[in-house]
Structure formats: structure tokens, C-alpha cells
Amino acid sequence: MSSIPILKSREAQIHTKGEKPFDMTCGKHSVAGSVSQRACVFCGSRVVLYPIADALHLIHGPIGCAAYTWDIRGALSSGPQLHRLSFSTDLRERDVIFGGEKKLEAALDELIDHYKPKAAFVYSTCIVGIIGDDVAAVCRKIEAKKGIPVLPVHSEGFKGTKKDGYKAACDALFKLVGKGSTEGVSPISINILGEFNIGGEAWLIKEYYERMGVQVVSVMTGDGRVDQIGKSHGAALNVVQCSGALTFLAEMMKEEYGTPYIRVSYIGIDDMAKSLYDVAARFPDNPEIMERTRKIVREEVEAILPELNEIRKDLEGKKAAIYVGGAFKAFSLIKALNYLGMKVVLVGSQTGNKEDYKTLQEMCDDGTIILDDANPLELSKYIIEKDADLFIGGVKERPIAFKMGIGFCDHNHERKIPLAGFRGMLAFAREVHTSVTSPVWQFCPARLGNKEK
Amino acid sequence: MKFAGKTDNYAATQNACNLCSPLGAALVFKGVSNCVPLLHGSQGCSTYIRRYMISHFKEPMDIACSNFGEHTAIFGGGANIKLAIDNIRSQYSPELIGIATTCLSETIGDDVPMFIRSYKEECEDKENLPALVHVSTPSYQGTHMQGFHGAVRALVETLAEAAETGDKPLLNLFPGMVSPSDLRLLKEIAADFGMEPVLIPDYSDTLNGPLWTEYQRIPEGGTTIEAIKSTGGAAASLECGMILAGEPETAGTWLDKKFSVPAHRIGLPIGIRETDKMMDILAEVSGNPIPDKYLGQRGRLLDAMVDGHKHLNGVKAALFGEEDLVAGLAAFCSEIGVIPALCATGGGAGRFEKTIKSVVPERIHRKMEIMEDVDFVTIEKALEKTGVDLLIGHSKGYAMSRRLKTPLLRVGFPVHDRVNGSRTLHLGYRGAQQLFDRIVNKIIEIKQDRSDVGYTYM
Ligand code: SF4
Ligand code: SF4
């Protein structure tokens, strides 16, 4: 397998724990000609804003960018489903030559009249950045005409990485924050940031906090609503999940409204429990909150433990590879997998920063491969070398795992089952178990090779 | 949910029924042996396209990208494309790199042919240089089908030679965007006529292969470069697609003009008549009679059509998707009594209505609605009025199928919500047989489920 060559320019983004001093190069633009698993700025913005279900999401550009993102995510809404439709200005040749502003204006006019959204987001795609449309001006004009916020999202694909897309989305979101009244917002309240309600996860988590006696003002952006975001500045605390996506917003809210924030993760039992305890600890004057939290954690863990223990018996000693978008998620996954008795042999992320990689390296055993912005060649090389039984990643990694006869768990925004929260942990364990223990692997030639070794 | 209808000067496309050009081009390049597709533009396009195709084919889908950054967008993509080619060569050692542009590189006016020329000139190890084939695919000019046919043509134009032929006569086959199973079927048919098929593209193995023993940088299979070169010496070309046949210049016509390889242009061989046509042409070109095997298949198909006719005659269906596929399905539907009450496509070649009408008997025309360059919202609105028994098209019609409570039979691309997109057969008598069985069974199932009694005899 060592015949798979690694590009020289990529070597600083791949490390084996225990070898050489650790210094990960990251945050780089992907190398030209590599098959990166990353997407573009637009993709980052779309991921963050997509779950806002009562807003219009109009993609300004040629058709592809919209067609490929039509209803691809499992972010659920309890009410309006506007986010699941795909709207595009579908720029054609003449628009590219003469500019797309007129078309954009007409599109917004027509769509807002018909769908009556609470706000509209206008995503700029690559060529909009080139043909020089004044998207902001069109947005201002329509905003004045229709009386709803019409927000440009500066997400031209080539102007950075997915992370810049998160930032562009946060900039747009921030313009909604503070638009509403904070009447009825309790002093014991939080916003949940960076939870997108994939498969209903945000509902699970919101319920935990509410049972603790903490009001959840707004979830950003899972099952999101424009009005709730508008009054989110009234919350006492921002609880931010995931390292990248919503931290920008938390920073801005801290600066502008003095809202403090903490970082949490809802993946795995330990991190989930910690997310609740950390919030409870922020309200020391109300000790009953902490008491309730303990009770909730106890009850929830007791409810899932028997089945988890059963599952663990089958998974003990199996090996896992993780390749996900944000490094923060990887931390939790390592812990969750360890909980199931599994060993992590490879871990990587699309957008981790230096600190993240340091943490990863501290968490892993010697010999674990650590990667930044990996490509399919590298991923396949190492999963075989390390004889992994399970690969955790997104849709793009799935066929690599399958071709090599390795189980797979989709841990991306496109999955349809909840993997966060206590019940999510159980769902995760079941998902892993279903794949890893399937009898089909016994027939897979690549795995047979590894057995004979 | 209610949708905003397109007004006269409608502006927004809602739930598009087509995809963008580089996707089609990338698919073609995936069907060439030892080839890596390279999209010249920023990263999102290639990542999205890969993701979209993976969900259909369920196979690894390496498509490289020249990864535009802000700098590139201002100063042009020349440096990036060269670096990309270098990096692809050192990682994959391909024999061919298929370069398709995206909206971005087209808009900034990158001169890709010039970049390629200068790369070749500057290149130090010229003998190891892979073939570099370029196709221009701005999505604001066309759909994935333009990208597909454009790439097929670019391959032929760049590589074809007036080659010597071997023992068997060569047959160039330009099948259009069909499933891996369809591709296999076409190869088998050509071989049964005693001809050596050169299928462009041929992703039957590269995108529908077995499990691996070790990682394959480039999946095995695909049309070899040698074979593409030999197209200039073929006995004939068979080019499928009625809409495609309206294009003034295609791979087939180009070979005809340049190397006097006669081009036979037919529709996608879906259903009896179009398949008959193909068989007749192959018999003529090869000088061999139609093998018994196919007479048998045809016979059994007709027998099945008679057995099931009562379930189908007068059934109304809506057909949607890629233009040529819809035309083929419309022709087949008319042969089995299914009324293609609505034919819709996101494509916009301008020949859709005429083509559809040419394959459906005139007396049915008044029962039909034909829509070109439309999105799903427009299609759904039309269906709310018309009402049909069955939808036939790709997965993206499912949302509409669910709301309209009308079952969807999945064909074509993409099939994202079933596992057999690659294995669905559309072409030839066997494809017609499969389609027929699926359509009849679906209708029977509906009747059975809705009946109060639930008979097991039909
Ligand atoms: S920019 Fe053009 S090529 Fe890229 S995804 Fe959008 S439509 Fe397709
Ligand atoms: S055109 Fe730009 S914004 Fe659209 S998918 Fe491609 S990289 Fe992303």
C-alpha cells in the first residue's frame, strides 16, 4: 500500500503520533489538483443558515450551486419547511454579460410575495463576485420595499475556505440579532449555538436544558426561526457547539451585548453531561438547577446504559478511523468510541486549527495517524494500513470505506439520524454496531488480506 | 405547500430539474480508462459534483480541482491548472486528464487551450505526458447534458486518428447518459453482431465495479485511449439521442466529416421501435443477421406486453428528466398504451416538443402537455391540474410524488434514494422488458392496495 504517493506539499499536514515533533500545518488553501474533501465558502454559509426554516434562501448564481444543495441535509423543522426548497437566480449567459442584479431583484420580489418569509438570505456564489453585482444594494432596496430583513451572504466560493463561509453566515445572522424585544426572556436563559437539529438533535438537547429549568431563547440555527434569533441577545449565556461554525457569532455577541459564551459538545455521554453541568454551573444562585441536572444525567444514562453495554461487548477492541469537518467533533467522537471499547487509529478534519490538532494528538495513542484536509488517496492508504473496522465521515468518504470492506457511520450534516444527546449516543452505538457487525465484511477481499497477515 | 408559479418574466428557478455542465463532462471522463477528471475552478463545484454522483453510483469519485483562490480569480487560472496537472500526475500517473471548466474560470475568461499548450511546451518529460483533453462547460450556457456530449466530442476530436482496424469491424457507440447496466448491454449487443465496440464513455466498470483488494487510485475499466484513437477507422458510428441528433456537430458527425465514418443517429433505444431501429442498423453495418438471442428477447417482451396490456392501456404518466431519456420513455409509453400526459425537462435545447411529438401518435398529442426548461415547482403545478397515475423520472421527483400522492418509478439519473441506480436497465429489449414489468407491477400494486378485497389473482 505504500505505493500510494503522498504529495510533498501535503506532508506537513499528515502526522503519525509518536514520530517527529508535532507541528501541524493547517488552515491552508487546498493544493491545486488534489481531490480535497472540502467544499467552498458558500457551502460553509449554507450549512450554518440552512436550518432557519422560515427564511427564504436564495442562491444567486448559475444553477449548479443551488441544485446540489437542494434538501441535502437532515435538519428538521417543527413548522415551516421553506428551507427544504431550492431557489436559484439560475444565471444564464446574458446575465453573466449584463449583470444579474435585475434578475435577483425580480426573483426576490416574486419569491417574498409568494412565500412570505420572515427574512431572506441571498447567497453570492463565485461568479457573482466576478461579474460585480451589487448584491447588498439590491438587498437594501428589497428590504425597504418588503419590510423584512434581506441579508446578503458574502459566500463567493473562491474567497477562502468553508470556515470563511461560517463567518459570512455569522455576519448575516448577527444582523438579525437584536431586532426583536427581549420581553419574556428569563435571566436564567441560554442560546444554543452550532446545533443544526439533524434528525431532531436540537429538540433532544433543548429538552434537557428546559428540564433543568433553563430557558432556551434561540437555537442557532437548528429548527431556527427569525424571530427567536431576533431576541437572542436577551439570553444570559451562549452555549456554542463545534469549534468552527458559530464561534464567530458568539464572539460578536460578546462584544456587542456582553453575552458570555462557553464551548460544549453534545456527542458522547461524558461530553453531553458536561454540557449540561457547565451550563448549570453558570447559575450558582439557583442550586436547584444543578440538582435537577444531576437527576437528568442519571436518568438519561441509566436509560441507555444496558443496551450500550450489550453493544460494547461486540465492539470491544475494534478499530476506528475518523474524518470529519470540525476537529471539535473529532474530540467527542474519540471519547464516544473509547466508551464503546473501540480504538481510534486515524483522525482528521477538514478545518481544524493548530490548537485543535494539539489536543487531538494528546488524546490519541501512539501510532495514530492525524490528518488535516485529507484526500481520498491518503484516507484509503491509512485505513488499510491501520486495518480499521469502522470509518466515520461524510458521504464522500463512504465509498472508500465500502470498497475496502470497512464499516461506515455517516457523521455529517447529511445524515438523517440524531447522534447527539444521550439518546443520540445510543443511536450512534446502534449505527456503529449495525455496520461493524454485519456479516457482509467476511466476503470482502481487502479485509481477508488483512486477516491473513 | 404552495409554490410561487413562474410569471411571464419569471426570475427564480425553484427546485431545478437539471444539473450543471461540468457534472456531465466529469461523468464522461470517469468512463475513460486511466483518466482523472479535473475541474478548473473553485473547490465547491467539484466537491458538490462528486457528492452528487457518489450518492447515485455509490462508488469512489475522484475528481480533482484546480482550487481557485482569490488570487487566481484576479490573475487567471494558468498557474493553478499547471500545478494541478503536475499534482495529478504525481499522485495518479494517469494516461489522460480530462479538463472541464466551471462557471468561474469561464467568466474570468481563462484561455484553457493556451494553458495546455504552454504546459506541454514547458514540460520536461514529454514522453510521459498524459493526454490532455479540454472541454468548455460554462453552466450558464447549458445543462449537464451539454457537458456530457461536449466531453464525448472533445475526446474524439483530440484523440481520433485514421487508424488501421483489426480483424473485427469497429463500431463507435455514443450511448448518451445511460446506466452502467445499459452500457454493458450495448457492448454485448455489438459483440453479438460480430463487431468490436468502442463505447464512449464506458463507465460500466469504473462506476459499477466490484470490491477491491487494494485501493485503486483510478478504478479499473473504461474506454482506453487506444480505442478512442481508433474511432477514426471504425466501420460506423451509432449515436443515441434524438435531441442530440439535432445538434449540428457531435462526435458522430465530426468523425463522419473528418474520417468518413458513417454516422447513424437514432434515439435512445428504449422500447420496441427504437430498439428495432438499432438492430436493423447493426445488421446492416455488420453484415450479419440479428442474432436469435434478440429475436427471443423481443418475442418474450411482446408476449409480456400482451399479457399485461389491460393494466396499462389508458394509464396516464408524467415523464421528467433529461431530454433524450424522456423522449425515449415517451416513445415506449406510447407503445404500451400509457399516455405520456406530461413530458417535462430542465434542459433547454429548444427541440423538446417537436421531438416528443414525433415519437407519440398524433391522436394522443391533445392529451399531452410538453414543458421545456422548467423546474419542479412548475412541473408540480401542472400536475396538480392534470393528475396522472404514475410519475416516471429520477429521485428528485420524490418530493413532488409524496405531495401529490402519486407513485414514482425511478429511472435515469440521479437515483439517490434507492440502491440500484447503476443497475437499472433502460435500453434494448431487455431494458424495455424491465421497464414494462416495473410499470405494470406498480399499477397492479396500486390497484391491489386500494381495493377493499385485495385479490391475489390478477
Ligand atoms: S458555479 Fe457553475 S460549475 Fe460550479 S456548481 Fe455552480 S453551476 Fe456548476
Ligand atoms: S461556484 Fe463557487 S460557490 Fe458555487 S459551488 Fe462552486 S465554488 Fe461553491
Any chance you could write out the topology, listing elements then pairs?
The complex is a heterodimer of chains A (453) and B (458).
Chain A: E1 14-16, H1 41-49, E2 55-60, H2 63-67, E3 87-88, H3 93-98, H4 101-115, E4 119-124, H5 126-131, H6 135-146, E5 150-153, H7 162-176, E6 189-195, H8 201-212, E7 215-221, H9 226-230, E8 237-241, H10 247-257, E9 261-264, H11 269-281, H12 287-315, E10 319-324, H13 327-339, E11 343-349, H14 354-363, E12 369-372, H15 376-385, E13 390-393, H16 398-403, E14 407-410, H17 421-436, H18 445-452
Helix pairs in contact in A: 1-7, 4-6, 7-10, 8-12, 11-12, 12-17, 13-14
Chain B: E1 13-14, H1 21-30, E2 35-40, H2 43-57, E3 64-65, H3 70-75, H4 78-92, E4 96-101, H5 103-107, H6 112-122, E5 131-135, H7 144-159, E6 170-174, H8 180-192, E7 196-199, H9 225-230, E8 236-240, H10 251-259, E9 263-266, H11 272-286, H12 292-312, E10 316-320, H13 323-336, E11 339-344, H14 352-359, H15 362-365, E12 369-371, H16 376-386, E13 390-393, H17 398-404, E14 408-410, H18 428-450
Parallel strand pairs in B: 2-3, 2-4, 4-5, 6-7, 6-8, 8-9, 10-11, 10-13, 11-12, 13-14
Helix pairs in contact in B: 1-7, 4-6, 7-10, 12-18, 13-14
One iron/sulfur cluster sits between chains A (40, 42, 61, 65, 125-126, 157) and B (42-45, 48, 103-104).
Descriptive notes:
- The complex is a heterodimer of chains A (453) and B (458).
- With 453 residues, chain A is α/β, with parallel strands linked by helices.
- Chain A contains 18 helices and 14 strands.
- Chain A has 3 domains: 8-25 and 316-415, Nitrogenase molybdenum iron protein domain (Rossmann fold, 3-Layer(aba) Sandwich); 41-174, Nitrogenase molybdenum iron protein domain (Rossmann fold); 189-300, Nitrogenase molybdenum iron protein domain (Rossmann fold, 3-Layer(aba) Sandwich), CATH 3.40.50.1980.
- In chain A, helix 10 links the parallel strand 8 and strand 9.
- In chain A, helix 4 (101-115) packs parallel to helix 6 and helix 7 (162-176) packs parallel to helix 10 (247-257).
- The two termini of chain A are 14 Å apart.
- Chain B has 3 domains: 21-144, 3-Layer(aba) Sandwich (Rossmann fold), CATH 3.40.50; 170-209 and 216-292, Rossmann fold; 307-450, Nitrogenase molybdenum iron protein domain (Rossmann fold), CATH 3.40.50.
- Chain B is built from 18 helices and 14 strands.
- Chain B: InterPro entries: ChlB/BchB/BchZ (IPR050152), Nase/OxRdtase_comp1 (IPR000510), Nase_comp1_CS (IPR000318).
